C-alpha cells in the first residue's frame, strides 16, 4: 500500500487548538522541551524573534513537526533556527518522506523570509543538508534514589569539591519570584561578562519563567545574603535541565557552583524527576571536561544546516578566532555597561 504524500504548511501558533495538537505530538514523539510551541512563544515574547513552525499532515493527521525561530540581527544576519535560544530542536517525524518534505518547505520559507541559513539542533534532515557531528555533546544521567546515593554517584574528585561546598555557610534558595529573578540575572550577567560574551535580555528569562510556571524555577546559592551562583532550570517529562547558570568569582572560592548543582539534583528528585540533563557543551571545552569529571558520559549531538545558494551561513561560534579580540575586550567592560549593550547583541544570537 502506498502512503499519500505529506501536506506541509505553516502552523497557526496563535490557535490554541493547533498548539495543543502539536504539544500532544511532541509528547508522543518524546520530543525535547525545545520542540514545544510553549518554548517558541516564550522566546518570541522575551526576545522579539518570530515564532514559526511547519507541520506535515497525512489525511488530516499530524505526522511531522519542525519548530523554528526567525532570528534576525544587523550583526549576524537572519537565520531560521530550531530552536531559537535552545540546544535542541529539529524535525520530529517517523518517515523519511516527511523529513524531506519539511526540509524542502523550510528552505522555501527561509528564502521567502530572506534568511541566509537554517540551523537544526537535532533530529534529521534531507540528505543534501550539511551534517554537523562531533562538535557538541550532551550530558545526562538518571538521578539516584536519595541524597547520599546522589553524592556517592558523583566521581571521587568532583565529590570532594561538592563536600567543600557543603561545609561552607551557604544558603540554598529555590523559587521564581521577583527576588529570585533579580538574583539570577545579577549572577548570570556577571558570569557571562567574565567569559567575554553578552548577556541575554532580562525579558527572556522572565518570559520563560512565566510561560513554564511550575515547570521552571531558579536555584540560587547565597553567602551572607548575597547571591553568588544561580541557575534557571526547566522540568520536562521527568527530567530537570539546568539551563542558564553561572557564578561570580566568589562562588569559585566557596565551591558554590558544585554545591548548587548537587542541591538541584536532590531538589529535582524530591519533586519527582528521575533524570538530570546537564546540557550540551562543546567537545573538548572546559565545561565538557567539567561535566565528564562529574561522571556523566558525553553523548555526541548531530546538528544540520542549510544555506541559500552562494551564501555563507552566519557564524556565531564564540570559539572562532575572529571573535577572540572582541571577547577579550568584552571581559574588560564595566558590568553596568555590559548589561546595557549585551542584550541588544544577544537577542540576535538565537
UniProtKB/TrEMBL annotation:
Xref: InterPro entries: Acyl_CoA_acyltransferase (IPR016181), BioF2-like_GNAT_dom (IPR038740), PEP-CTERM_FemAB-rel (IPR017469), PG_Glycine_Bridge_Synth (IPR050644)
Gene3D superfamilies noted in UniProt: 3.40.630.30
Pfam families from the UniProt entry: Acetyltransf_6
Domain BioF2-like acetyltransferase: 156-292
Name of this chain's protein: FemAB family PEP-CTERM system-associated protein
Originating organism: Qipengyuania marisflavi
Amino acid at each position: 500500500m502506498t502512503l499519500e504524500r505529506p501536506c506541509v504548511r505553516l502552523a497557526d501558533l496563535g490557535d490554541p487548538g493547533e498548539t495543543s495538537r502539536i504539544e500532544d505530538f511532541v509528547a508522543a514523539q518524546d520530543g525535547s522541551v525545545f520542540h514545544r510551541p510553549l518554548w517558541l512563544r516564550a522566546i518570541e515574547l522575551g526576545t522579539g524573534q518570530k515564532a514559526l513552525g511547519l507541520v506535515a499532515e497525512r489525511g488530516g493527521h499530524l505526522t511531522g513537526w519542525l519548530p523554528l525561530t526567525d532570528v534576525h540581527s544587523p550583526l549576524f544576519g537572519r537565520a531560521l533556527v530550531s530552536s531559537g535560544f535552545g540546544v535542541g530542536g529539529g524535525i520530529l517525524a517517523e518517515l523519511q518522506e516527511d523529513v524531506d518534505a519539511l526540509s524542502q518547505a523550510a528552505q522555501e520559507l527561509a528564502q521567502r523570509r530572506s534568511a541566509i541559513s537554517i540551523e537544526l539542533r537535532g533530529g534529521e534532515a534531507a540528505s543534501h543538508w550539511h551534517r554537523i557531528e562531533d562538535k557538541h555533546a550532551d550530558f545526562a544521567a538518571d538521578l539516584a534514589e536519595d541524597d547520599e546515593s546522589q553524592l556517592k554517584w558523583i566521581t571521587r574528585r568532583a565529590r570532594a569539591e561538592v563536600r567543600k561546598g557543603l561545609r561552607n555557610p551557604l544558603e540554598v534558595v529555590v523559587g521564581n519570584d521577583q527576588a529570585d529573578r533579580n538574583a539570577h540575572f545579577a549572577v548570570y550577567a556577571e558570569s557571562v561578562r567574565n567569559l567575554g560574551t553578552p548577556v541575554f535580555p532580562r525579558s527572556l528569562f522572565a518570559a520563560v519563567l512565566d510561560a513554564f510556571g511550575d515547570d521552571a524555577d531558579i536555584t540560587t546559592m547565597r553567602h551572607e545574603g548575597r547571591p553568588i551562583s544561580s541557575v534557571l532550570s526547566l522540568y520536562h517529562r521527568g527530567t530537570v535541565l539546568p539551563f542558564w547558570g553561572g557564578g561570580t568569582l566568589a562562588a569559585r572560592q566557596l565551591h558554590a557552583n558544585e554545591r548548587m548543582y548537587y542541591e538541584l539534583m536532590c531538589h529535582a528528585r524530591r519533586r519527582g524527576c528521575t533524570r538530570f540533563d546537564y546540557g550540551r557543551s562543546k567537545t573538548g571545552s572546559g565545561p565538557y571536561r567539567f561535566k565528564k569529571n562529574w561522571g556523566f558520559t558525553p553523548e555526541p549531538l548531530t546538528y544540520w544546516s542549510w544555506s541559500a545558494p552562494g551564501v555563507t551561513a552566519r557564524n556565531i561560534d564564540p570559539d572562532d578566532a575572529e571573535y577572540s579580540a572582541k571577547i577579550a575586550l568584552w571581559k574588560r567592560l564595566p558590568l553596568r555597561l555590559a548589561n546595557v549593550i549585551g542584550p541588544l547583541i544577544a537577542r540576535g544570537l538565537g
